[in-house]
UniProtKB/TrEMBL annotation:
Protein name (database record): SufE family protein
Domain Fe-S metabolism associated: 12-129
Signal peptide: none
Family to which this protein belongs: Belongs to the SufE family.
Organism: Aequorivita aurantiaca
Amino acid sequence: MSIEVIQEELIDEFSMFDDWMQRYEYMIELGKSLPLIDQNLKTDDKLIKGCQSKVWLHSEMRDGKIVYTADSDAIITKGIVAILVRAFSNQKPQAILNAKTDFIDEIGLKEHLSPTRANGLVSMIKQMKLYALAYQTQL
């Protein structure tokens, strides 16, 4: 499934909710379903800089596609990273590098996050794209 299709699914899922409390609850549920990062990978070099909460992000190449795993010590932040992992995991590096992130605005995520969480969101996307760039140069 392409990044664009997954992003459309996410937009559709979030549009089912009438208010932001329901969307936050859904985001928390997504965070609970996040494939957990191996405890051995929760190291300082996997921490995303620019996040108020601790967010660990790991990536590896499998069959030419990047697989991300992540975790956070905050439930909302864990939900945010779960959305990004769902959108970008199991994709080729070039697809991740070319991917637009407009779906975040369409969900309304940025405008409903505190400035520090919004900065963290940008940092998460940046780190995912940096991993993709690193893998792309190895191909």
